[in-house]
């Protein structure tokens, strides 16, 4: 059976279930994207770190397993974490998860590599400070002139999401400094925090999670960010909490600074509930989930922008460029980019892809993305208020799509699964647009 869902520019595991991107770094000439991986099965019962590497951010190789749950500190899973390069050694920080007599224990652990191929777990570890429950995980590390910094996603003993802050002077011994940030916004648990400075602003990324939902076995969570300042080891937001992505499938993003000085981000391209995951058609081919494309983050005029990677844009082969109000095609390629710009703000647009499987509508200053579910067969929608629409760029892979709105002011990510090759596209705009359609090189 041919695999119609196999993506070309979204990283997918060779087999098994992939979730969060971990340990993003550049080391000895290669980009490293580690990831949460169950290489044995299509469920979440086992977690190790798998690894993709690349020299150019375009061609990736899966290197198999990197960190296994093989010590008493991490027997129930090597959970998410990050990387830092220090004195030409790669340091990986992760959460060792173990369940002893049914109760959870989380330790923040470290592994070191000199060659980027073998990873030596170190004996030191951090135990959870008194004020948190054992939902304490996903260490993110950075360094500056004051030393090394670590934030860890957590839950306070009275049940709120919180982020813990640690410091180190030698990248080995860590001292707990207190709560970096907590608020009701963080619901009942804060997963996968990230912090960085960009274009003169400080950003905190976090995934607030609601855990005790009565009727649903699924945990509800989403990925968000704040802008703010650090004072006395605490983060003070200057903005409201904002969603990172306004589509259906985006979670657990992580960023790092690449050698070109760019803040690059990958995320897990899934927010599927358990029914959607169970019905996901790639299971027939032995794997589940993918990562988003890498995005470059920028802050422009006080706003966060997410931009598609230059390298990917440069790999486009331009096929068609036209001025039109209408664009119809029966055969949209699986690796394509549609680019639309309007010289003045648009009053409406309707875009239907793949026999109405995915639609996008802009009207009355609202952008509405709809997707027919492969699980309950219903149409689900995501709506965002948007004062004006001046540019839309859509990256279409075989079963993943990312929509960059107004040059990255907002992004909507989603998976879609077509039973047959119905790759039609129908775009109707209220105003003349510059439209270009290109294919991406594989
Ligand atoms: C987020 C997450 C992390 C955890 C990992 C386990 O998706 O729940 O908090 O470390 O996945 O796979």
Automatic annotation (TrEMBL):
What's one GO-annotated cellular component? cytoplasm
Record-linked SMART domains: Glyco_32 (SM00640)
What PROSITE patterns has UniProt attached to this entry?
Answer: GLYCOSYL_HYDROL_F32
Give the subcellular location.
Cytoplasm
* Record keywords, A-Z: Carbohydrate metabolism, Cytoplasm, Glycosidase, Hydrolase
Listed GO molecular functions?
Answer: beta-fructofuranosidase activity
Q: Which Enzyme Commission number(s) are listed? A: 3.2.1.26
Which Pfam families is this protein grouped with? Glyco_hydro_32N (PF00251)
GO terms (BP aspect): carbohydrate metabolic process
Q: Which residues form a coiled coil?
A: none
Signal peptide residues on this chain, from the entry's feature table: none
Supply the Gene3D superfamilies for this chain: Exo-inulinase, domain 1, Glycosyl hydrolase domain, family 43
The yes or no answer to whether the keyword Lyase is present is no
Pathway participation: Glycan biosynthesis; sucrose metabolism
Reaction equation(s) it catalyzes: Hydrolysis of terminal non-reducing beta-D-fructofuranoside residues in beta-D-fructofuranosides
Glycosyl hydrolase family 32 N-terminal domain residues are 10-308
Please explain the role this protein plays, according to its UniProt record.
Enables the bacterium to metabolize sucrose as a sole carbon source.
Similarity section: Belongs to the glycosyl hydrolase 32 family.
Name of this chain's protein: Sucrose-6-phosphate hydrolase
Organism of provenance: Streptococcus himalayensis
